[in-house]
Amino acid sequence: MIELKSAEEIGRMAVTGQFVGELLAELSGVAAVGVNLMDVEHHARRRIKERGAESCYWDYAPSFGRGPFRNVLCLSVNDAVLHGLPHDYVLRDGDLLSIDMAAGIDGWVADSALSFIVGSPDPADLKLIEATEVALEAGITAAQPGGRLGDISAAIGEVAHSYGYRVNAEFGGHGIGRTMHEAPHVSNNGRAHRGMKLDPGLTIAIEPWFCRTTDKIKYDSDGWTIRSADGSRTAHSEHTVAVTASGPQVLTRRPPFRAGSPPSSEKRASIVSINSPNSSDHR
User: Fold this and answer.
1) N or C: which terminal CB in the chain sees fewer CB atoms within 10 Å?
2) How far apart are CA 197 and CA 169, in angstroms?
3) Domain range for 154
4) Is there a binding annotation on residue 181?
5) Is 169 part of any domain?
6) What is the pLDDT of residues 174-199, one digit of tens each?
7) Where are the transmembrane segments (predicted)?
8) What pLDDT is attached to residue 31?
9) Which H or E run contains 105?
10) Chain-wide mean pLDDT for the chain?
């Protein structure tokens, strides 16, 4: 069943969305050359706890994966694109990192993701990231009241194809609100003017993700991390969006961020100190 949200409920989701967007922007500065993925994970855990929020990932145990997830971030590096399990890995110059997070505050959820280069960028990686961001904006623009769900899917797919990328339709966007995953499924490829009507009050996560040279995927032995089947680089962008009578409203917009530069020695020491491996919840 699809639940349409009231303006008040969308406003409450927007509170969560602001937190998620701000934390993602912050994490993009934390994740730099020489920083361990687990330090990024623990930084997010601390911020979520300070805000009184709840992670949607911690007890996440779907039919795939080896649940529960027991982390608050999906951290996917290079050829990993979805559900990257945080692990002991030190970020290197030129890594392409995707961070995905979903959290709830007072019973209302928001979900968002971004990809960026750590350190020195490869133009081909920047093009791939740009394609997901342009596709995301196209999907958002297509989320107009009175339109059809296929309009969003078609807009995303059109951008992917214009950049020369193929689209995997196994995973895509989804409804969101009281829980992280609600109906409907929002495919990253489809036909315009088809599918369910986009009524005001519909809240969805729109999330295009592309692999550079394939549309096939494979799973790591951890049961979670999804990679491109051919080892090519990947990227992922996502926002939580509400369809309103006046048009789409993005609930997870992020403040400007600057990613990719190594932190100072003082900042790195601070991050490591905050997220000490001696912490009782370090996993």
Assistant:
1) N
2) 20
3) 7-274
4) yes
5) yes
6) 999 999 999 999 999 999 999 999 99
7) none
8) 97
9) strand 95-105
10) 92
* Annotated binding residue 282: no
CATH number of the domain at 202, please.
3.90.230.10
Please provide residue 36's backbone torsions phi and psi, each rounded to the nearest 5 degrees: -80, 140
Q: Does 22 count as an annotated binding residue?
A: no
How confident is the model at residue 87, as a pLDDT?
97
pLDDT digits (tens, 9 = 90+) for 61-71: 888 777 799 99
Task: At 66, give phi and psi (nearest 5°).
Answer: -115, 80
Look at residue 164 and tell me whether its pLDDT is greater than 90. Answer: yes
Beta-strand pair 226-228/173-175: unpaired
Say whether 100 counts as a known binding-site residue.
Answer: yes
On whether residue 2 sits in a domain, the answer given is no
Structurally, the chain folds into a number of domains equal to: 1
111 is in an annotated binding site: yes
Whole-number CA gyration radius for the chain: 18
Is 93 labeled as ligand-binding? no
| Residues making up the chain, counted from first to last | 283
Instruction: Give the contacts of 196 (CB within 8 A, at least 6 positions apart).
Output: 2, 148, 149, 184
Residue 235 tokens read as 């990227």
Instruction: Tell me if 245 is assigned to some domain.
Output: yes
pLDDT at 262 over 50: no
Q: How far apart are CA 156 and CA 198, in angstroms?
A: 16
